[in-house]
From TrEMBL:
Residues 674-765 form the Glycosyl hydrolase family 31 C-terminal domain. Residues 1-25 form the signal peptide. One of its GO terms (molecular function) is hydrolase activity, hydrolyzing O-glycosyl compounds. Residues 292-666 form the Glycoside hydrolase family 31 TIM barrel domain. This is Alpha-glucosidase. Belongs to the glycosyl hydrolase 31 family. It holds the Pfam family Glyco_hydro_31_2nd. The keyword Glycoprotein applies.
Length: 935
């Protein structure tokens, strides 16, 4: 075993000598790979007054030329911004470098650059602590680390590799324990599941490349990861964000992680956790809380690229109603447009008078209508949107002229959403369109930005573009040439763009193009969809004062504060069905909880879709964002096309619509704390290591678990159950009692039209009767499902529900506009049962006449109930509120499933129903009774 000096220079020289000697002994002349960098040394470090942090100066140890010259002096800035968050920023000490604009992502500013001259008290201590995290460092060579104050557990440590900082190449590495479970670093389709796999590629750069491409940089840029470790039997998590919008490769080797970034600066944020839920709370408190969604957004959505005329759309709505399948929102892709031009209507296929009449009809029923818009604005002198954009000079430029690209309408220019005039122009165009068509939301697509061409293009003189009646409108028809004479289009380090080291400008805006104030596309590329979402949110929020709904394809850190997301162009295959779960769960970690995949797949696939669509709607009914969408070339796949699929849809969507109050309450909690709607199992069970890699099941909130069938021909599913009692929501007499058992799966029946959805013990789950549209479903009476552990003797359960006027832009408790109710339940001695509520601001739910009609309690032991007593606001229910005839009934015995349970003969567990109620949701109540247990 060889052991070399800790000096990186001496180590490098000794390794080089050894390699040359070995090569010479074999008659080979070896050429050593050029050293990228030798690191920096810390030459000064001071502490700013009033908790302002540390500022240091770094000096390069030995310059190299690989990927360009090293920046000679760097500024180090360290600050504990909050007790659970520390920021470490490294940048050029003398020149301002590109960073994510503060007006896009508001955050605490770093100190201004002073050329390395900083006044303050010299800092000589070895550690710089906060209440939870500690920053440590070495001086020569410079390295830094972050660890927990309480346990000394290291979270990030760069001492194993040299810091490299050049104009277009930044590199830094951290060591990792081999048993750390990592999640995040996206967006990409991960065939191995949600847990990151060593040696898989993780390139972060927004790209229009279909989600069917595996391990490839896709539509979003989220350079953040969560690290979960089991320490002494406890799951402990932290997260690391590198806030940088430039393209990067991240190399995860199992025991190390290395960033290779092509610009900007190193701006790290470390979040201490220690639970996954605490991580997303801390993360979204910095990047922006998830935007609140309107209630109807949690209904079912139907779209298709290929609804050629309004009559087809009307027929789709009628098809859903005739089949009694829930439907809240009907969408148009670009079919409604005149020649694929934004903010227009096709006068033949979508004539405005007929469209307005259709919208009046569906709006009266409570349905909504959403259309797509792309960022590319058609170059057309007779097109008012284009004329107004040219007049205000709001397009991205190359060589002083608007950058020419091609998308669906043919030649286009791209609006610059970093330009204040571009934002105000966009807001005005959205207003004009809304005056034309009162849409209920907007779908912003192709905003990576997508371009069918590459390089510098001109409109051809020898042929038309777009080509009339082309069957392949995505093929470039402009005259284009690659741009190779700039360091922005041909940087010294090539990231693995598009999974094939493609040019940075491949099928997008040339990276030497410029935005407002000379900002390079090279730096701002991955911010395009983010900046468009912000502008679109401003536009919609200004219309009628309603809560906006925006669906965006391209995303960045903070996009969840403005928009929902779908996982892009998937395929109608069983593999894509499975992949959708991991991508959905990742976006919950990224702070975008409203997410889902195209149900049944966007692209057509060989073979029959019927069985796949059965299973996909069973899963997709429990995506936070639930939408069926297909390509124009796909066979029709609306859920009523096959009777078997319609049956699965009625079953699964029927349960979704019963769960709408729960989903909407999760929406409220997400807005308050960032908590994802759909979560990996480890969010609720971080101590249960067998669930760290589970990517075939997920939780809704903390307590509802979805276990879909993901294999063709399967009529059962092998599901993992963390320790505790789980009740099947479709049939609560079916119970799984898990002791953990090292993660041994339980085999559950899953016939074609059924999906397994379970609720966990210690939960009070609010449900309603459901319906075929959310407007009607949300007005129906409530049922509370109280889940105690199987055969509970001493147990507690809790839950909550939030209801409001969802047209308000804000989602906050306000008297007369929202109500929040906490539910508590307990059983003592196996006999005395109590269910009660605590109401905050009950007047809204009172004005809506919302009532609780039934309480269903699971897990009790006994043969009956007695001594039922109910009080409302401290008074006897008989005098406090008009009720029908309350009754208390005991259901049948629970049926244990799986082998990892308890002896069926050891306990007898039953359900108890208290029905015939009309308890106002807006008034606190207490309900008690005693179980009768026969000898």
């Amino acid at each position: 075993m060889l052991s070399f000096s800790r000096s990186p220079i001496l180590s490098y020289l000794l390794w080089s000598l050894l390699l040359l000697t070995l090569a010479s002994s074999n008659g080979v002349v070896a050429t050593a790979k050029p050293k990228v960098g030798f690191g920096y040394k810390l030459v000064s470090l001071v502490q700013l007054p009033n908790g302002g942090g540390l500022v240091g100066c770094l000096q390069v140890k030995q310059p190299t030329s690989t990927y360009g010259p090293d920046i000679p002096r760097l500024r180090l800035f360290v600050k504990h911004e909050r007790r659970e968050r520390v920021r470490v920023q490294i940048t050029d000490a003398d020149k301002q470098r590109w960073e994510v604009p503060y007006n896009l992502l508001p955050r605490e500013p770093a100190p201004p650059l002073t050329g390395g001259k900083v006044t303050g008290a010299p800092f000589t201590a070895a550690e710089y602590p906060s209440e939870e995290l500690v920053f440590t460092y070495g001086r020569d060579p410079f390295w830094f680390a972050v660890h927990r104050r309480s346990t000394r557990q290291t979270l990030f440590n760069t001492s194993a590799g040299a810091l490299v900082f050049k104009d277009q190449y930044l590199e830094v590495s951290t060591a990792l324990p081999k048993d750390a479970a990592l999640y995040g670093l996206g967006e990409n389709t991960q065939p191995g599941g949600i847990r990151l796999r060593p040696n898989d590629p993780y390139t972060i750069y927004t790209t229009d490349i279909s989600a069917i491409n595996l391990n490839t940089d896709l539509y979003g840029s989220h350079p953040v990861y969560m690290d979960l470790r089991s320490i002494g039997g406890r799951g402990v998590a932290h997260a690391v964000l590198l806030l940088n919008s430039n393209g990067m490769d991240v190399f995860y080797r199992g025991t190390s992680l290395t960033y290779k970034v092509i610009g900007g600066l190193l701006d790290f944020y470390f979040f201490s956790g220690p639970t996954p839920l605490a991580i997303v709370d801390q993360y979204t408190s910095m990047i922006g809380r998830p935007v609140p969604m309107p209630y109807w957004a949690f209904g079912f959505h139907q779209c298709r690229w290929g609804y050629q005329n309004l009559s087809v759309v009307e027929g789709v709505v009628e098809g859903y109603r005739n089949a009694q399948i829930p439907l809240d929102v009907i969408w148009n892709d670009d079919d409604h447009m005149d020649a694929a031009k934004d903010f227009t209507l096709d006068p033949v296929n979508y004539p405005r008078p007929k469209l307005l009449a259709f919208l009046d009809k569906i709006h009266a029923q409570g349905m909504k209508y959403i259309v797509l818009i792309d960022p590319g604005i058609a170059v057309n002198n007779s097109y008012g949107v284009y004329q107004r954009g040219m007049a205000r000079d709001i397009f991205i430029k190359l060589d002083g002229q608007p950058y020419l690209a091609q998308v669906w309408p043919g030649p286009v220019y791209f609006p610059d959403f970093l330009n204040p005039n571009g934002v105000s122009w966009w807001i005005d165009e959205v207003r004009r369109f809304h005056d034309l068509v009162p849409v209920d939301g907007l779908w912003i697509d192709m905003n990576e930005a997508s371009n069918f061409c590459t390089g510098k293009c001109t409109i051809p003189k020898t042929h038309q573009c777009p080509i009339p009646d082309s069957k392949t409108p995505w093929v470039c028809c402009l005259d284009c040439k690659n741009i190779t004479n700039t360091r922005w289009d041909e940087p010294p380090y090539k990231i693995n763009a598009s999974g094939q080291t493609a040019r940075l400008g491949f099928n997008t805006i040339a990276t030497s193009a410029t935005h407002y104030n000379g900002i390079l596309e090279y730096n701002a590329h991955s911010l395009y969809g983010f900046s468009q979402a912000i502008a679109t949110h401003k536009a919609l929020q200004g219309l009628q004062g309603k809560r906006p709904f925006i669906l965006t394809r391209s995303t960045f850190v903070g996009s969840g504060a403005y928009a929902a997301h779908w996982t892009g162009d998937n395929k109608g295959t069983w593999e894509n069905l499975r992949y959708s779960i991991s991508t959905m769960l990742n976006f919950g970690i990224f702070g975008m909880p409203m997410v889902g995949a195209d149900i049944c797949g966007f692209y057509p696939a060989a073979g029959s879709l019927e069985e796949l669509c059965n299973r996909w709607i069973e899963l997709g009914a429990f995506y936070p964002f639930s939408r069926d969408h297909a390509n124009f070339a796909s066979p029709r796949q609306e859920l009523y096309v096959w009777e078997s699929v319609a049956k699965s849809a009625r079953n699964a969507l029927g349960m979704r619509y019963k769960l709408l109050p729960y989903l909407y309450t999760l929406n409220y909690q997400a807005h308050l704390t960032g908590a994802p709607v759909a979560r990996p199992l480890f969010f609720s069970f971080p101590d249960f290591t067998p669930c760290y890699g589970v990517s075939t099941q997920f939780l809704l909130g903390s307590s509802v678990m979805v276990s879909p069938v993901l294999e063709e021909g399967a009529t059962s599913v092998s599901a993992m159950f963390p320790p505790g009692t789980w009740y099947n929501l479709f049939d609560t007499t079916k119970v799984v009692v898990s002791k953990g058992g090292g993660g041994a799966p339980v085999r559950l029946d899953a016939p074609l039209n059924e999906i397994n959805v379970h609720v966990y013990q210690n939960t009070v789950l609010p449900m309603q009767r459901g319906g075929v549209i959310s407007k009607d479903a949300r007005a129906t009476p409530f049922t509370l499902v109280v889940a105690f552990p199987y055969g509970a003797m001493e147990a507690d359960a809790e839950g909550a529900v939030y209801v409001d006027d969802d047209e308000r832009p804000e989602m906050a408790l306000a008297e007369g506009q929202a109500t929040f109710v906490r539910f508590h339940a307990s059983v003592r001695g196996g006999k005395a049962v109590t269910v009660r509520s605590e109401v905050m601001m009950g007047s809204f739910s009172m004005s809506k006449g919302l009532v609780i009609e039934k309480v269903s309690v699971l897990g009790l032991e006994g043969t009956g109930g007695k001594d039922l007593a109910i009080q409302v606001d401290g008074a006897d229910a008989a005098t406090a509120v008009a009720t029908s005839s309350p009754y208390l009934a005991v259901g049948g015995d629970a049926k244990l499933q799986g082998e990892d349970g308890v002896d069926e003969n050891s306990k007898r567990s039953v359900s108890v129903e208290v029905g015939g109620l009309a308890l106002p949701l807006g008034k606190s109540f207490t309900m008690t009774w005693n179980m009768r247990i026969d000898a």
